[in-house]
Amino acid sequence: MVYNLKKIVLILLIIVVFSFEIITFASIFFPKVSLHYKIYYIEHKLKYWNDDKFNKYKRFFTYYNKDIKSYLSKNGWYGIEPNLVWSKGKISKIYFPMDNVANYTGILKIKVLILGNQIIKLYVNKKFICKKAYNNGYHFIECHFNPNILKKSSINVFKFKFSNPHSPSKKDNRKLAMALMSFELR
Description:
Blueprint: H1 2-29, H2 35-42, E1 63-64, H3 65-68, E2 77-80, E3 85-87, E4 91-98, E5 107-114, E6 118-124, E7 127-134, E8 137-144, E9 154-162, E10 178-185
Antiparallel strand pairs: 1-10, 2-3, 3-10, 4-9, 5-8, 5-10, 6-7, 6-9
């Protein structure tokens, strides 16, 4: 009888330990963390950590370079400058969490500084929305798209593809195409 009791206790201990291990492994693969933490630390998509502040996009609010800092992709942008942020290489992305997307009309307005001649293709959530050619200087870009491609209660990815990123001078070896100055989504 004592032998059977020890056996039962041992089996119960094994079940408890096994359950603990399953819960531990589940929390490793499916951690309960904030969205900002997840895409910055786990997915390594964001350039800047912003004290775990990853506010939802504010409709009709114009984001300038310092406002948009928290939403920039890790590999697509150089550092923030006083009035702009330069794209890095051929692709740059912006990640915006959004809640209520039903009231959007599907208009993206951005103010940019273009370096050289560029063809810029814009995508929202992997859907192509427009393609425009620009030459050196300041430009306002306005793209109209179907607002149904916006994801409710999720991250929306705005991707820019550039045709001709290049160094502005022999002393500056960065590969630049566009400097983002403002971003607004309607």
